[in-house]
Amino acid sequence: MDLQPPGSSLVTPDWLAERLHHPDLVVLDASVGAHRGAAERIPGARVFDIDGTMSDTTSPLPHTMPDLNAFARSLRALGLHDHSVVVAYDAAGLYSSARAWWMLRVAGFDRAAVLDGGLPAWKAGGLGCEPASASTVPTAAGDFIAKPRPELLADSVTVTAALSDGASAVLDARSRERYAGQVTEPRPGLRRGHMPGAVNLPFTDLQVDGRMRASDELHALFSAAAGPRERLVFSCGSGVTACVLALGADLAGYHDLAVYDGSWSEWGLPSDFPVETTDLAIS
């Protein structure tokens, strides 16, 4: 079977299972947090460590994009070639795998997709796993060369401009309670609330039972949140679940997309960045 790039940014467990042993396929385990280092994984999966080397470890902010030259070296060490096809998944379902997919896009690699439903969907389909202790070190380094797309990442200056730009929408992927400022942020020292003008679209709203909604349903959600605005900028706690919104928008047919890399981990710090809260009872 010839391995062609997926026709979508999302693939099913069956699609992956049929191609799992193709030499040009690279499967990446992009699990984070409590799911990082799970006891089992999809056979042959290589670790894409967002909590470690796949983020900028010199930054005071979590999960920020590393230097692209260093990132490309890390990808080559995982065996990534320019002609490879990548499927990213995570053990939570569909949580952090979209971050790996988006980071690859920032580096100019488009032959990548996310596994719909992640490891839980894989296992629910009766598909086998292997112990995480099994070696998946590639026999040779890949030849991938980064082709940077810096416009796919937004900084605080870009976000500030987007908040007052009638052609742009800033969408916040955090829970409604965090967006409203009704609960304490999980990262110490951050203020409660949201950016004035940002619209809340929790990343969980894009999923049903851990899988992404159909493209027409996704388009309806984004249309309701953004109105006629076509330029979409996504934020969350640390730039991870914002990428789930980026994935959903891509599946819904939007094209002018960016992820705020610092997200609330930067904006929510004590600073002059404006913050407001919302009464959930009347929102």
Would you kindly provide a written description of the structure presented here, covering whatever features stand out?
The chain has 283 residues and is α/β, with parallel strands linked by helices. It has helices at 13-19, 68-77, 97-106, 118-124, 156-163, 176-180, 215-226, 242-251, 263-267, and strands at 10-11, 25-29, 40-41, 46-47, 85-89, 112-115, 130-131, 153-154, 168-172, 199-200, 207-208, 211-212, 231-235, 256-260. Helix 3 crosses helix 8 (242-251). The chain starts with 9 loop residues before the first strand and ends in a 16-residue tail after the last helix. The protein folds into two domains: 10-148, Rhodanese-like domain (Oxidized Rhodanese, domain 1, 3-Layer(aba) Sandwich); 151-267, Oxidized Rhodanese, domain 1. It contains nine helices and 14 strands.
Number of domains: 2
> Which sheet architecture does the biggest sheet show?
5 strands, parallel
User: How much helicity do the residues have?
Assistant: 25-40%
Q: Compute the separation of the termini in Å.
A: 52 Å
SSE class:
alpha/beta
CATH topology of the largest domain: the name is Oxidized Rhodanese, domain 1
Please give the oligomerization state of what you see. single chain
Descriptive tags:
26% helix, 2 domains, five-stranded parallel beta sheet, alpha/beta, Oxidized Rhodanese, domain 1, 9 helices, 283 residues, single chain
Fold topology:
Elements lengths: L9 E2 L1 H7 L5 E5 L10 E2 L4 E2 L20 H10 L7 E5 L7 H10 L5 E4 L2 H7 L5 E2 L21 E2 L1 H8 L4 E5 L3 H5 L18 E2 L6 E2 L2 E2 L2 H12 L4 E5 L6 H10 L4 E5 L2 H5 L16
Parallel strand pairs: 1-6, 2-4, 2-5, 5-6, 8-14, 9-10, 9-13, 13-14
Antiparallel strand pairs: 3-7, 11-12
Helix pairs in contact: 3-8
